[in-house]
Design goal:
The chain has 105 residues and is an all-beta fold. The chain has no helices and ten strands. The chain binds FE2/S2 (inorganic) cluster.
Length: 105
């Protein structure tokens, strides 16, 4: 089933923020860069590392894994360098009535 899930209010979310959001068995990373909100899987595709403890580059709109330093684009999850080769899953985001929603399928 596909549905929009309410995640958080938009107001407290600042550029550079990384937020953990769990839905069922999914571990999701909510991030804000360049006034845009992104949602990706939170666990690195290379090995087990939680990207919420990684480093965001707001200008590049990327997240760097804290374990082996692979860099992923927040927009489409693609890795920019090794060792990660698989993209992060990304989720559609919408803002409605000052709330962030993500589309879960
Ligand atoms: S666990 Fe993320 S790059 Fe290795």
């Amino acid at each position: 089933m596909t549905e929009w899930i309410k995640v958080c209010e938009t107001k407290p979310l600042k550029n550079g923020d990384l937020l953990e959001f769990d839905y069922g068995d999914k571990n999701i990373l909510i991030s804000k860069a360049g006034n845009k909100v992104y949602a990706t899987d939170r666990i690195c595709t290379h090995a087990y590392a939680d990207l919420s403890t990684g480093f965001m580059n707001e200008n590049e709109k990327t997240i760097t894994c804290p374990l082996h330093m692979s860099i992923f684009k927040l927009e489409d999850g693609t890795p920019q360098n090794l060792p990660a080769e698989e993209p992060l899953k990304t989720y559609r985001v919408k803002i409605q009535d000052n709330w962030v929603y993500i589309l879960m399928e």
